[in-house]
Design brief:
- With 405 residues, this protein is of the alpha+beta class.
- 41% of the residues lie in helices and 10% in strands.
- The strands form two sheets. A five-stranded antiparallel sheet has the order 1-2-7-5-3.
- The radius of gyration is 34 Å and the shape is extended.
- Residues 1-22, 270-295 are annotated as: Disordered.
């Protein structure tokens, strides 16, 4: 039999009716306009009581940016390392006015005055560890909150290079085992020595071209030898700074392209030395510091040796001639007047020691022509003929069996 329990023995948490609800606090809408005959203190009282947000809530955008950076590093660790190295090579060059284009927005100087390159170099040297450390050591909220403005700009620069730059291409590492078939498909000679890294280059603006169903004539490809510090500008903007009237040279042989790359890399140093000799007011220490073009502001890359770059570019349509697909084009040289007509497709990186050995190998490997297989129509015709032949053989066997009976 149920007994009645006194209400005093019922816990308050189980009897919400007994808990009197507090009266709602009237919330007055803040007024920013001054009423007639009202002092300013009454209007500004709301702003006086405003509490600033805690410090831990401020670096949330930086944490989100670093999370996206780690995702990019985790997806393509070696390609991301190479992208950072390409950028730092352009930023560390003695002619950064020509190589560091486009300029990162975090380090832009006054309009028309270029980049704050010294601040950029110090920020990168102080705040960019190796890519492995970026993945393994996530920072805490307190560490983000204690960063200086230049340190924050350096970390945002990582996000700008790896994630948020629309003009820069996407680099993806490829296995060196595909190099022979790739060169055979593109109609190029294979390097005598294997490159240290082989990467594909893709742009967002070229994704729509994949859905185009209209047949396109087969394009021609060639090697473009570039000094490593010019690679950032060419991949981001498609432009190469050439003297007036001088054409861009591309080759079907990688050895010849590396020789031309070596000639191009020596020209800026000679011009820089001549400008130093003409300037009598510059001190010897400044000359040595400015002449040292091999020092990088980021020394934590996995590629410790200096690099030479070969870019496999798709040539413009006006150069797609029948000679480009003939086996006699081993030493064919292409002349292009405008660099914007070239489309970078693949990137080959060599250590300088390996590139020097390749340049002395002459004439190199011959171009292996690709023997395309039968088309879909031919394969369908062959399959139908085999089926018809099989059916006729069976029908003949049946006729012979009936005739024997």
């Amino acid at each position: 039999m149920d007994t009645t329990m006194p209400m005093g023995m019922v816990p308050n948490s189980l009897n919400p009716i007994l808990n009197p609800r507090p009266l709602p606090i009237p919330v007055t809408k803040p007024r920013t306009k001054l009423q007639p005959d009202e002092p300013h203190d009454g209007v500004l009282a709301f702003n006086k009581g405003k509490v600033p947000p805690p410090v831990s809530s401020r670096p949330i955008p930086l944490q989100r940016a670093m999370s996206e950076v780690r995702d990019a590093l985790r997806a393509q660790p070696q390609a991301s390392d190479i992208r950072l190295l390409i950028f730092t090579a352009a930023a560390s060059s003695v002619e950064h006015e020509r190589t560091l284009i486009p300029v990162p927005p975090q380090f832009q100087a006054a309009p028309g005055s270029g980049c704050q390159v010294d601040r950029l170099r110090h920020a990168v040297a102080d705040n960019w560890p190796s890519c492995r450390i970026m993945l393994d050591c996530p920072s805490t909220d307190e560490q983000y909150a204690a960063l200086m403005p230049d340190d924050v700009d350096a970390l945002h620069l990582l996000h700008w290079i790896l994630v948020a730059t629309p003009s820069s291409p996407t680099l993806r590492r490829m296995s060196g085992l595909h190099l022979r078939r790739l060169c055979r498909f593109l109609g190029l000679a294979r390097p005598t020595l294997e490159p240290g890294h082989l990467l594909s280059i893709s742009y967002e603006r070229n994704v729509q071209r994949l859905g185009d169903s209209s047949p396109r004539p087969r394009s021609s490809y060639a090697y473009l030898g570039l000094p490593f510090q010019y690679l950032y500008r060419f991949l981001a903007t498609g432009r190469l700074e050439q003297p007036p009237g001088v054409a861009i040279r591309l080759y079907a042989q990688p050895e010849t392209a590396l020789v031309h790359c070596d000639e191009l890399s020596s020209l800026p140093q000679q011009q820089h030395v001549q400008s130093e000799e003409q300037s009598s007011s510059q001190s010897i220490a400044e000359r040595e510091q400015s002449g040292n073009s091999s020092s990088l502001c980021w020394r934590n890359s996995t590629l410790t040796a200096p690099q030479r770059a070969l870019v496999i570019c798709e040539l413009p349509s006006e150069l797609d001639e029948s000679i480009a697909h003939s086996p006699e084009k081993h030493f064919l040289e292409y002349f292009v007047q405008e660099s914007l007509s070239l489309r970078p497709c693949y990137l080959l990186l060599f250590d300088e020691a390996v590139a020097s050995n390749i340049m002395f190998v002459w004439p190199g490997k011959c171009i292996e022509l690709e023997h395309p297989g039968p088309s879909m129509v031919q394969r369908s015709r062959i399959r139908i003929m085999n089926i018809v032949r099989n059916l006729s053989n069976r029908l003949g066997a049946v006729r012979r069996a009936l005739a024997a009976i």
